[in-house]
Amino acid sequence: MVKDITRYFDENKGLKPNLVLINGGTNDCTNNKQAGQPERMKKLVDLVFESIPGVTVVLSGLLPNKKTAADECAKLMDEKYLEQMKLYPEGTKWLYRRWVCIEHSIRYWGDADAHLAHGMD
After folding, report:
1. Least crowded by CB within 10 Å, which of 51, 85, 87, 92?
2. Domain of residue 9, residue span
3. Cβ-count burial of 1 within 10 angstroms (0-12 exposed, 13-18 middle, 19+ buried)?
4. 32 in a domain, yes or no?
């Protein structure tokens, strides 16, 4: 759950990584805890940026789910995550990736959107 990821990050932010990959929200969707989830994710990303100067955040989209309600939630969260990431100011280092599941294997489908103010370093 996003709240658990936030707590874990907060406890370990002193490690100061230069890259943070966040894959979170699936459990929120499958446990019917999606109310406020995009806001919780935004708070987590804000915490990362505030805690580690110069960090790059990679936020992945949620995987498709066999349960219809959870899959609909995942699609909605993907849209909401992307909307929120676009609100960050120019120069913010983030990348949003979307993944799809095809015949029981996960394959790269492409960027839903990318914003890298710093080339490919």
Report:
1. 87
2. 2-115
3. middle
4. yes
Cβ 70 vs Cβ 25: under 8 Å:
no
**Distances in Å between the alpha carbon of 55 and those of 12, 14, 80, 84?**
14, 13, 22, 18
**10-residue stretch averages of pLDDT, the chain, 121 residues long:** 90 91 87 83 91 87 84 87 81 61 38 38 35
Q: Is residue 121 part of a domain?
A: no
Three-state secondary-structure class, residue 113: strand
Residue 120, in any domain of the structure: no
DSSP structure class, residue 115: E
Rounded Cα–Cα distance for residues 33 and 25 (Å): 9
**CATH number of residue 48's parent domain:** 3.40.50.1110
Q: Print the SS3 string covering 60-106.
A: ECCCCCCCHHHHHHHHHHHHHHHHHHCCCCCCCCEEEEEEEEECCEE
